[in-house]
Amino acid sequence: MLNNPRSIIAIVPAAGVGSRMGADKPKQYLMLGQQSILAHTLDALLAHSEIDLVVVALHPEDKYFSKLPQSQHPKLTQVIGGEERADSVLAALDYAQTLNPNAWALVHDAARPCVSHEDITQLIESVHIHPQGAILAAPVRDTMKRSDASGHIVSTVDRALLWHALTPQFFPVSSLRSHLSAALAAHVSITDEASAMEWAGVMPGLVQGRMDNIKVTHPDDLQLAALFMSQK
Length: 232
Fold this sequence. Notes:
By secondary structure, the chain is α/β, with parallel strands linked by helices. The protein has a single domain, classed as Spore Coat Polysaccharide Biosynthesis Protein SpsA, Chain A (Alpha-Beta Complex), CATH 3.90.550. Helices cover 28% and strands 24% of the residues. The protein has helices at residues 37-46, 85-99, 117-125, 173-185, 193-199, 219-230; strands spanning 8-14, 31-32, 35-36, 53-58, 76-80, 104-107, 134-139, 144-147, 153-157, 163-172, 205-208.
């Protein structure tokens, strides 16, 4: 199946995903119900019928991943990631390129366990509208304020065209690999895959996703993620 030009390779950068949230292990391995955050995330990707392979980019000293049942899944493989998210994504893209340079990469945060199959499918199908690639995003709902360096409000920002960037983000393997590599070589600050494409002059599409596709960043997020997952 990986020889198909429409092959889809999901990439999960899990080498460095932020703080440990006061725990003794990386946050993606914290428990969310009966299994870890990362395990839930991988379950969602592995169970999607249109995803052919899941590539997890791990820290070289990771001692937790091999204990997950998902690590033995026949549709999953692992590579060694880098210090930053972009480095880990690039390592996975290098691997994906050797399998099928015509495949598409579906890059998803390790700490977004609540992603729905409906959103993933919607993003994949958006290729007919956005052949250059697209990302899941949610429109900004709150009033946005711009401040000065002292923390005073300078102005109210029009939120009409503002979006929260989510994941997955969906791009051709070859173009994302090329633009991400060039951006890193130019020492450009890359916050997500779309920013590398934007730097190269590509305008990714926006596909509206669910607001419950949260990223677990703070301890309170664990309770919220558990609530969302219990309702699915």
